[in-house]
Write a structure and sequence with these properties.
Number of helices: 18
Largest sheet: 6 strands, antiparallel
Shape: globular
Number of strands: 21
Distance between the termini: 24 Å
Strand content: 15-25%
Mean pLDDT: 92
Low-confidence stretches: 1-25
């Protein structure tokens, strides 16, 4: 059944979808259709294409299979991803060699591509070769699991292949679960490859060669996507097909309009409403809110540790003591999230969990003392930046920061920058003092430190250079002794808490607003909706 374009337009205007379905079986069709509205857009069907939006990552998880996926678990009554459980998707099983240097992967014997052809080890090798070789977003991510060369992937037979590692990397398998790890029908994709584009990246922007739970029926970049269920899909955790037969995704730029569509029952799900709208939606007769702290993410206040005066640890510690954390938390997020400040521990942290609450407390007297010890008894002048796109939460944070630092002698000039300018300056390390956020797809402690606090690269927000952190993160990455791994992680956290290259201040809630009839929403590490888990009660 093809849904006419008017059905998609109904969503934007707030009308119902009654006209989208034939009279026969209308109620069943409506019940088995999920209508999802988002403020952003899906700008490619291939998440590996440079410039892909996060919404493209989410779509690909529903359309493409990976070899593996994370499990899920309930925390405080809500479903969240579980990175400690790795289960097969296209893989039926795997074995790890005793030395942890070889992974043998057995494919599902009944897995087919969406065109009906069988999934083979040849397809999987081509997909893995592409992931480490193409000029795309995938190779840097795969390198964090020591997956860097096509020579590491070897076909054993039509349904078996091996992955070889030079060292027993802790995150090799986990990297095969991320959005970039799409498995592709190589025979179909190669028909559209060229000498200049051997991996068919241009073709996969607007076409799919997938095996996943949903098939793309219609794609209008920046506007809408319509998916229909792949009734031959075999990749589910329990062997069952997803509940929803059809998914309609619509870009609706205004947050207030998205909220109104949910409230009226004209849409079923939105995950990017304004924080200020959430309390109202919690009281709605037609909607409910699933709120989960973004446990693999963080909001931070960064200081460029290579530029004076922030190259002085005492200056960074002084700012850490001056800030009004609770006031900022309430003003920015209305208290919706997990605090990463206010801990009472000193020295070694209580666990290797990261991020975890740091011993950051508001203490203006200590801030003044530290500034004096740093050689700034009368304070100094600086600027503090945030992006226009983050203004809803960053603006109140910045105002309170300016006021608090002014009381200890630091004069702050607030700079609200267009997103493109902010991102460019951040990438080029031209921001000295600013706020932003980060998310680690693979929430292992060593990975956080490797990704955010080592090397001269984009995600080292504070441009921190600490030889001991670099040494410990590399040791922990390949550590097979659990006790040594724990000790290495705790030492990294202790150094971070002391040196304060940046201040991790909170983990915002991920708020998913949905019709009361919709259940099963899972908070995923890539912060997008997984339609495969959803049901209508």
């Amino acid at each position: 059944m093809n849904i006419p374009r008017r059905a998609v337009l109904h969503l934007a205007t707030g009308a119902t979808l009654a006209g989208a379905f034939p009279m026969s079986g209308h109620a069943q069709s409506r019940a088995e259709t999920l209508r999802y509205v988002t403020g952003a857009n899906i700008n490619t069907l291939d998440p590996c294409v440079p410039g892909s939006t996060r919404e493209s990552f989410g779509l690909s998880m529903n359309v493409y299979d990976r070899l593996f996926t994370f499990g899920r678990k309930k925390v405080d009554g809500n479903w969240v991803f579980d990175p400690t459980v790795i289960r097969g998707e296209l893989a039926q099983s795997y074995e790890m060699s005793p030395d942890k240097l070889t992974i043998t992967i057995h494919l599902r014997p009944d897995a087919n591509w969406q065109d009906g052809s069988p999934v083979t080890a040849e397809d999987i090798k081509w997909s893995l070769d592409r992931a480490v070789s193409a000029k795309s977003l995938a190779p840097p991510q795969f390198s964090t699991g020591s997956l860097t060369s096509p020579d590491q992937f070897r076909i054993v037979d039509a349904k078996t292949l091996t992955v070889s590692l030079a060292k027993p990397d802790r995150l090799a398998l986990a990297n095969l679960c991320v959005p970039y790890a799409i498995m592709i029908n190589s025979k179909l994709a190669k028909q559209h490859a060229t000498a200049d584009d051997p991996w068919a990246l241009q073709w996969t922007k607007t076409n799919t060669a997938a095996s996943g739970a949903y098939i793309v029926e219609s794609y209008k970049p920046g506007e809408s996507v319509i998916l229909r269920r792949n009734d031959a899909w075999k990749g589910g955790a329990d062997g069952k097909l997803p509940f929803f037969r059809r998914i309609i995704l619509q870009t609706v730029p205004e947050a207030a309009t998205r909220a109104n569509l949910i409230e009226r029952g004209d849409a079923d799900l939105a995950i990017d409403l304004a924080a200020s709208d959430i309390p109202t939606m919690e009281k709605s007769a037609k909607a409910k809110v699933v709120s989960v702290p973004q446990t693999n993410g963080f909001t931070h206040i960064s200081m460029n540790t290579q530029i004076a005066p922030f190259d002085n640890p005492k200056v960074r510690q002084a700012i850490g003591a001056a800030l009004p954390y609770e006031d900022m938390f309430q003003a920015s997020l209305f208290g919706r999230g997990r605090r990463l400040y206010g801990a009472s521990w000193t020295g070694s942290p209580p666990s290797i969990d990261f991020p975890q609450p740091m011993p950051l407390k508001t203490d203006p007297a200590r801030a003044k003392q530290l500034l004096t010890e740093a050689g700034f008894p009368n304070g100094f002048k600086t600027s503090f930046a945030f992006s226009t796109g983050a203004a809803a939460t960053a603006e109140p944070l910045a105002a309170l920061l300016k006021e608090a630092l002014g009381k200890v002698g630091i004069e702050v000039d607030i700079q609200k920058k267009p997103d493109a300018e902010f991102n460019t300056m951040e990438a080029e390390k031209k921001l000295t003092f600013f706020t932003d956020s980060g998310t680690a797809w693979l929430p292992a402690t060593y990975y956080y430190f490797y990704l955010y606090f080592t090397r001269d690269q984009r995600w080292n927000f504070a441009s921190w250079k600490n030889t001991k952190i670099e040494e410990l993160s590399n040791q922990a990455r390949f550590e097979t002794d659990p006790a040594k791994y724990e000790a290495e992680c705790k030492e990294m956290i202790e150094i971070f808490a002391d040196q304060q290259p940046l201040l991790m201040i909170w983990q915002p809630n991920h708020d998913a607003v949905m019709a009361k009839s919709v259940d099963g929403y899972t908070y995923q590490f890539y912060r997008q909706a997984d339609f495969r888990d959803l049901v209508r009660a």
